[in-house]
Specification:
Layout: H1 2-10, H2 12-37, H3 41-62, H4 67-91, H5 96-119, H6 131-134, H7 142-161, H8 163-171, H9 173-178, H10 183-205, H11 210-222, H12 228-250, H13 258-276, H14 282-307, E1 313-314, H15 315-321, H16 326-338, E2 342-345, E3 348-351, H17 353-374, H18 384-389, H19 397-413, E4 420-421, E5 429-430
Helix pairs in contact: 1-2, 2-7, 2-10, 2-11, 2-12, 3-4, 3-5, 3-10, 3-11, 4-5, 4-10, 7-10, 10-11, 11-12, 11-13, 12-13, 14-16, 14-17
């Protein structure tokens, strides 16, 4: 820890790299959110691999490692790859994933061939172009980092200014076209922004891992929200944290690449989001499913006791008529005792008055659900989902009156169903 703080405070190169990877992470997260929602995640991977031949061409043309020229070369072949994919998918029957695979393989293969050619040049051993494959942020100098910072900041600003247009064209391109948004130009602009983002980050993260930095923060953010605005902000934040933590982690030892640390940090955040996000996390889904299974088991058990028409029923008989696992049945029985729905005397179980009213509620709501499924057009006023969420004997007088009115309507339309509510005291329900 002391080593990290010492590097941050005293090492100018670490400070520059830290700022650049922070801005790169934010820009990648922001652009990656739209790429994910537009189902263009793999295009970033293709562009990243396609940037390699452009870098090699630029070095062969200049004869030296000029970072700005290398970025221009990478952007040129990256844009060419992106537009080639769009051209193939729009003019042929080849699907997008096949076109991406084809373009990625061809461009990356060309890049490896050119990289071999560069190594045979007199100045090739000093080129350091191998760093673009896996990334080497430590090799960046102040001038390179300033250029990266300016470009990353520009990407963030442009995306914020075009946020509304990108939002509309992402979710409803036909509507966007109808209200006069130049869809073709916007798609061209977004593809260009995506290419520039990839090109800016390949020196720090590398052509192989850049796609991960582009998409992983966006996927992690998607687990936490349904709002696009919140998702974009969270994705940028996760990308920035990944860039910062990955850079600091790589300072712990000599020869450690920054790019893999950044991607690993983003992956850890993604795994945490996938497991523990409140709505979509696997743990949350499992917990809700567990509670729902207990709720269904409670309904089955209470209805079985009510429909048995016996005041007391033995546990052995109950286990036969209720197909509930023993562990869950014991847990549900304990909960029903605590809520005063049932009574236990030795090996026998009985419903309390509250439990009988609960059973009548279950029977009523289940019956109404069946009616709603059978006659959806005739019963548009019947909102069964709200009834299922509430306890009928805890409804207010107004709610009870409204429910009674609905039952009267159903009874008039379908008298053979014999549905009625008794008074507030007994609350007997019949279907």
């Amino acid at each position: 820890m002391n080593h990290i703080w010492h590097s941050i405070i005293n090492d100018g190169n670490t400070q520059w790299v830290l700022v650049s990877t922070l801005l790169l992470g934010i820009a990648s997260g922001v652009l990656g959110s739209f790429a994910l929602l537009r189902k263009q995640s793999l295009i970033g991977d293709a562009v990243a691999h396609a940037a390699l031949p452009g870098i090699c061409f630029a070095f062969m043309f200049m004869g030296e490692k000029n970072f700005l020229v290398l970025l221009i070369g990478a952007a040129a072949t990256g844009l060419l790859a992106a537009y080639t994919i769009q051209f193939i998918t729009s003019t042929t029957r080849i699907k997008e994933d096949t076109a991406i695979c084809l373009v990625l393989s061809v461009f990356f293969g060309l890049g490896i061939v050119l990289l071999t050619k560069v190594a045979q040049m007199s100045t090739g051993n000093k080129s350091g172009l191998d760093d673009f494959i896996f990334g080497q942020a430590a090799s960046l100098v102040g001038r390179d980092v300033q250029l990266m910072g300016i470009m990353a900041t520009s990407l963030i600003i442009i995306t914020v200014l075009l946020f509304k247009e990108l939002k509309v064209s992402t979710f409803d391109p036909q509507f966007a076209k109808g209200i006069g948004i130049p869809l073709g130009f916007l798609n061209f602009t977004f593809a260009s922004l995506l290419v520039i983002t990839v090109v800016v980050g390949i020196q720090a993260v590398g052509v192989i891992l850049m796609a991960a930095l582009l998409i992983t923060p966006a996927i992690a953010a998607r687990f936490w929200t349904n709002s696009l605005k919140v998702m974009v902000v969270l994705s940028g934040l996760i990308g920035g944290i990944s860039g910062t933590v990955g850079t600091l982690g790589s300072t712990l030892g000599k020869g450690l690449s920054t790019g893999p640390f950044i991607v690993l940090t983003a992956t850890v955040i993604f795994l945490f989001s996938m497991l523990f996000s409140p709505k979509r996390g696997l743990v949350s889904i499992w917990f809700r499913r567990f509670k729902n299974d207990d709720r269904l088991a409670q309904k089955i058990l209470v209805k079985s006791l009510y429909e048995s028409k016996q005041t007391w029923i033995s546990k052995a008989v109950l286990s036969e008529i209720c197909s509930i696992a023993p562990i869950r049945r014991k847990r549900v029985v304990d909960k029903l005792i605590k809520e005063e729905f049932i009574l236990i005397r030795g090996e026998a179980i009985s419903l309390t008055p509250i439990g009988r009213r609960k059973a009548e509620e279950y029977i009523l709501v289940d019956g109404l659900l069946e009616l709603k499924e059978m006659y959806p057009a005739e019963l548009p006023f019947l909102d069964v989902s709200e009834m299922e969420k509430q306890q009928l004997y805890d409804l207010s007088k107004e709610q009870y009156k409204e429910l009674h009115s609905k039952m009267t309507q159903i009874h008039k339309q379908y008298p053979f169903l014999n549905i009625h509510l008794s008074g507030r005291g007994g609350q007997g329900y019949e279907l």
